[in-house]
Amino acid sequence: MLALDDSAIARDGKILILAYDHGLEHGPTDFEGLEERMDPQTVFDVATHDAVTSIAVQKGIAEGYYPSYEDDVALVAKLNGTSNLWMGEPDSAVNCSVEYAADLGADAIGFTLYGGSNHEIEMAEEFRDAHEAAREYDLPSVMWSYPRGQGLKNDTSAGTIAYAARQALELGADVAKVKYPGSRDAMEHAVRAAGGPNGTKVIMSGGSKVSDEAFLESVKSVIDAGGAGLAVGRNIWQRENPTELLDALEQVIFEEASVDAALD
Ligand code: FBP
């Protein structure tokens, strides 16, 4: 496990990844209502906020836009991804090599694993190759650990999310990005399953847009449970003014403020 506390993608051991791979994963539908976010530059601008410790994008977006921002924001290069047009069993094509990601200036690699999918074996083998190549470059790996597939579609039960966190630890990921299991207790279980304080850092995946208060409450419960933070997309850049929520998140994640204090 790499010590991430002083790494480029963490601040005081805490993590806020601004995720922006949705154009591939969900398609342009995620930009409806705020079409300016179709332009990656608008989201890279958001990523320069102090609360954001890195931005996660696919290769094409990194190639086109990261060169202008490399002094201001760390890069998590997402190495695999699938479009919503794919109708088969959950799977994710490897779109970028670790070597190429390093050339692009990546500070970490991002990789999706769909535990429980009929393609889990191949995906785990692809992750092995990516993880071991990333170690050669001292790049941490962030696993989007999303159990899904036959009988498991978007299962966020405590047991499933703890298993997702454990899978990330066992396979060598430095950070496990998991769906929010619904409560602080369930998140504590996931953090323990990931090995505890010296294990894989567990972060929450943002999900679809909710109110400021509901979102901050879930982030607060992740931090209180010993989680390291979050990776968030739509709850930030689908907002007209992402700065306000990022200001509040900065207080909750890095200053241990209450939700009420952060909203004041
Ligand atoms: P959100 O905060 O918008 O949920 O983004 C997190 C994320 O993991 C993205 O990186 C990814 O594009 C998307 O969610 C995948 O969501 P889904 O569960 O629909 O596959």
UniProtKB/TrEMBL annotation:
Q: Which residues form the active site?
A: 146, 177
Q: Which domain of life is it from?
A: Archaea
Q: Which InterPro entries match?
A: Aldolase_TIM, DeoC/FbaB/LacD_aldolase, DeoC/FbaB_aldolase, FbaB-like
CDD domains, alphabetically? DhnA (cd00958)
* EC numbers for this chain: 4.1.2.13
Signal peptide positions on this chain:
none
Q: Name one GO molecular function term.
A: fructose-bisphosphate aldolase activity
User: SUPFAM superfamilies given for it?
Assistant: Aldolase
Q: Which SMART domains match?
A: DeoC
- Family that this chain belongs to: Belongs to the DeoC/FbaB aldolase family.
Protein name, UniProt field:
fructose-bisphosphate aldolase
